[in-house]
Amino acid sequence: MIFPLLSGFLSFRRAPVTWLIFILNAAVLMWGWSFAWSVNERLDDLMNEEFFLQTQGHVYENYLKERATLTPDVVRELASSGASDTQHFRLMGHLAFRDDDFIQQAPSEHLYSDEVAVKHWKSQLLQIGDLESVHPSFLLGVSKDPVNFGQWVTYIFSHTSGWHFFGNMLFLLIFGAALEEVIGGLALMVVFVMTGVFAAGFFLFVNGPTTAPLIGASGAISGVMAMYSVLCWNRPTRYVYWYFLPTRDSMGFVFLPAWTILVMWLLGDLAGQLGNLEVMGGVAHAAHLGGDLAGAICGVLVTLMWKKTAPHRLRFKDGFTHEMWRLYPFFNWYYTRIRKPAAKAS
Amino acid sequence: MVIPDPNWSPADAPPVANRPTLKYTAKPIDRLAAQVFDVGVVIAPIFLLATARFKVMLYHGFLVENQEEVVLASIAHACMGVVLFIAYHFFCNLYFQTTLGKHLFRLKVVDVWTGEPLNAWRSLGRAVVSAASFLSFGLAFLPMLSNDRRRALADLCFDSEVVSRKPNNGVIPHRNEKWLVRGVYGLATLILLFASLSLCRSVLSYSSNQEDLSAWFMDRASKCESIDEAMAQWPLGKDEHKASRLRVSLALYAAGIVDRKCLQSEADNEASFSNEPTALYYLAQSFAHSDETDISDSYLKQVCDQDAQSSSCELSQIVSAWSQEDWLRMDQAFSQMKHPDVVAAVWAIRHFMKQGQPEQAFSWIKRVSPNKALGNFLQVQRVKALWLMNHTSEAQIGALQALESLPEDWQVDLASWMCTQETSLECKKDVSLSCRWLQGQKFSAQDDPSLAVAMLHVSECSGDAVKYSELSEINTLSSWPLLVRLVKEQKGGDKSLALKLAEKIAYDENEPEDFRLEAFRRYIKLADNRTLTRSLPEMKKLPQAMWRELQPRLVQELDHRSGNRMPASEDQEP
Predict the structure, then answer these.
(1) B59 and chain A: CB distance < 8 Å anywhere?
(2) Are B431 and B459 in contact (CB under 8 A)?
């Protein structure tokens, strides 16, 4: 495993704005959890009910046969495949959730002749709509209504799950803190929000309005990472590597120029975006790419500005001379109990 | 590959001064770090980008269930990975003597004898063997833990060595490391041996497995295929030109010939091809969704809304009475039916057999016959009805014919039912025909309570000593060993314990009906007159079908005890 560690987690005193963003995200997560728990459970039950999904699959198939919408080719191919088994209709039912036109238009049209099934499907769809209207992900995330610009900002601070939050915040605390040391707290906040907004715009430009809301700070964090990589492009950046091996040298640091981070992330997101089938996927790679682009532009602009006005700010000191390991309990234990005694003995 | 020269002597070796000393030999852990860096940071992102289109192909293949596309995309992924790995290592080692990862850890690849860079062919060969080592889960890298110069398989094959650019206090392998390598290789050999043996075993049993599997698939497929067969054989009415496929499916479902999935698939087909679903469609859907009460009820309600005059509407009311266990209403509904069709007839036969009214059931069987598609069902029900109507000789002749001509499932059903009936009061001198037939076969009663009870009777009446421990394992239900214990205690043990066990199983509503009936039969024999009289009101509260089965036995037992044993006629049960 290898991971960019930079200067690690800085204290609140050294990176106050980063920690404030973290706290804000945590607060929104707690607020969302406080009432989304039961809604989530109910929503899952409704959306995964077998009979509902089967009916939705039938209705969606008939809907696609009658219309030439902008539906992806693979869905049209599936609809016209002639398969009539339950698995096929379940899949079609799941795919239908991603087609906003269908969800809006189908309930008012006569697309399936089984009245009992259609009645059940409509009532369930109505319940799902009601639940979505009070769900934090739909309230704060960017979804069906692309011109609701408030959501372009609020989506940055909301997360779906603990793991989603944990992953994003890990990167925020490392890269946000590093960038805050370079450009200052206020500028970091501006860059964070601006790149987040740009990421949402880019996502909507590439994918169009979606029924699954876009949420999470990853777009904005991609922007922060990209700006750091461009601004400090030649600065040695510390990566930590480790393997799960019982040897003394099974972990350590390597130093690479900061631009490698941008290249690695850009390649990953580009691969994700190109290799993503339109009807599948839960990661908004387009938003990450938008964030990367916005962050890189910010980085270039600030570099050009500093070259003229404050060239000294571009001459970075080496920040890795202090013993970083002391900050981490495990590393501390490893160095004091194992590494040093072994070195002395040899 | 290095071919050892038999004439080679140490004197021919290149001068020692040109060789890298042990002091500069790369540490294995640094080499591992460099490899992880190369794969994780350099090759993986390029691989992901290069295979993005194949990934789309793979997802597409999975979605539209195109196996060829999935296989092609998987092969393309694997090939791309291997090619990238080889190309990266080949070019880097050839032009820079190091890769990016090795550069970071200050390592370089050199000729083991001269310390010079490798030439193109050796560089390519080394990259290919490294890729193969990677694919072997790293096993081929392990030799570097056991030889003094820390050379992996690729180095040994192409006379190369990885050295450190700075002195790093390299040490020769510790004996523990050597033991580790031997251990891992030993383990790998054992696993390989075990895998080969299992492979051989599976190849040997492949033919029999294949037969079993194909039989299973054929059986699965034939269940729905029997609708096609039935369509060809279905007797048409006066004004009918072609039988309704859905009606045939419903009749077959009611008779237990096709399962619910087949019925649902037929109903879905009907919905796809007709603009306006019929009452029959809604009836079929109500059966297809019988495990979801609300949905099933909605469909049942819709049947009469669609067409109040149809036979489907009449049947929907009967089904609704069946689900409410309102047997009286069902009796009336069947007698007042204006348009009884085959589906209704099958339900009527099942209802009257369940309610212990074999005469009524028999009259419905006559109405439906002859019907080749339902032939097996009708034959079995006819034999059962005849037996219950005390026409035992006719029933036994019918059973004899049926056991020769019916498919296995139906044979087992009929034989276990007949065997239980024939031996339920006492074992005859010579075991009954059905029991003898069961005795000669090797069926699994793991999931079939009725067959398990029949096997118990067969074992009891065979004349040999009953092997209770073996018997208690023929069925997986938790109450089965209790039932076997009850029989054991009844035969020659603690009678009061047997009575308690019989009472426990008989009154437990969660137990299968066959077990409960068997327990009740034993209970009637074990309990004294006082206990029987006391439990009579409770027994009357049992489901009607069970009570109708038990009532004559109870009367017979009480008569027997009072000394007024009724003389058994030829056609009567002993």
Answers:
(1) yes
(2) no
Q: How far apart are CA B118 and CA B137, in angstroms?
A: 26
Q: Which residues of A touch B (CB under 8 A)?
A: 1-2, 51, 58, 74, 77-78, 81, 83-86, 89, 91, 112-117, 119-120, 241, 243, 245, 247, 249-250, 252, 254, 256, 260, 263-264, 267-268, 270-272, 274-277, 279-280
Q: For residue A137, give how far its alpha carbon lies from the nearest alpha carbon of chain B (Å).
A: 27
* Nearest-angstrom CA–CA distance, A98 and A47: 12
When scoring B295, B300, B301, B303 by the number of chain A Cβ atoms within 10 A, the one with the most, hence best to mutate, is B295
Measured in degrees and rounded to the nearest 5, phi and psi for residue B172 equal -70, 155
Contacts of B51 (CB under 8 A, 6+ apart): A271, A275, B76, B77, B80, B81
Report whether B303 contacts A114 (CB < 8 A).
Answer: no
Q: Does B46 touch chain A (CB under 8 A)?
A: yes
With beta carbons less than 8 A apart as the criterion, state whether B280 and B271 touch: no
Give the pLDDT of chain B (574 residues) as one tens digit per residue: 334 444 444 444 444 444 444 667 888 878 888 888 888 888 998 999 999 989 888 888 888 778 888 999 999 999 999 999 999 999 998 888 888 888 888 888 988 888 888 889 999 999 999 898 888 877 777 777 777 778 888 888 888 888 887 776 666 667 776 777 777 777 877 888 888 888 888 777 665 555 555 554 455 455 677 777 777 777 766 656 666 778 888 888 888 887 788 888 888 777 766 667 788 888 888 888 877 888 888 888 888 887 777 777 888 888 888 777 777 777 777 777 777 778 888 888 888 887 778 888 888 888 877 877 787 888 888 888 888 887 878 888 888 888 778 887 788 888 888 888 777 766 765 657 777 777 777 767 667 777 877 877 777 777 677 777 777 777 777 778 888 887 777 777 777 788 888 877 877 777 777 888 888 888 887 888 777 777 777 777 777 767 777 777 777 777 777 765 443 433 333 3
Dist. CA B393–CA B187, nearest whole Å:
69
| Binary contact (B45, A271; C-beta < 8 A) | yes
Whether residue A114 and residue B285 make contact (CB cut-off 8 A), yes or no, is: yes
Nearest CA in chain A to B274: A113
Which of B104, B285, B298 is closest, CB to CB, to A254? B104
B30 touches chain A (CB under 8 A): yes
* Element at B219 (helix H, strand E): helix B206-233
Measured between CA atoms, how close is A16 to chain B, in angstroms? 31
Distance from chain centroid for Cα A135: 19
Q: How far apart are the first and last CA of chain A?
A: 29
Nearest-CA distance from B471 to chain A in Å? 41
Q: Which residues from chain A sit within 8 angstroms of residue B261, using beta carbons?
A: 86
Q: Which residues of B touch A277 (CB under 8 A)?
A: 56, 59-60, 63
SS3 content of chain A, % helix, strand, coil (to 5): 70, 5, 25
Cβ–Cβ contact B171 with A under 8 A: no
pTM of the model: 0.65
What is the Cβ-side half-sphere exposure of residue B389, based on CA atoms within 13 angstroms?
20
Chain B residue with Cα closest to A72: B60
A49: closest chain B residue by CA = B292
Tell me A98's DSSP state. T
β-bridge partners, B164: B107
CA B243 to chain CA centroid, nearest Å: 34
CA distance B329 to B90: 85
Distance CA A284, CA A216 (A): 10
* A241, A263, A270 member nearest B37 (Cβ): A241
Q: HEC states along B67-108?
A: HHHHHHHHHHHHHHHHHHHHHHHHHHHHHHCCCHHHHHCCEE
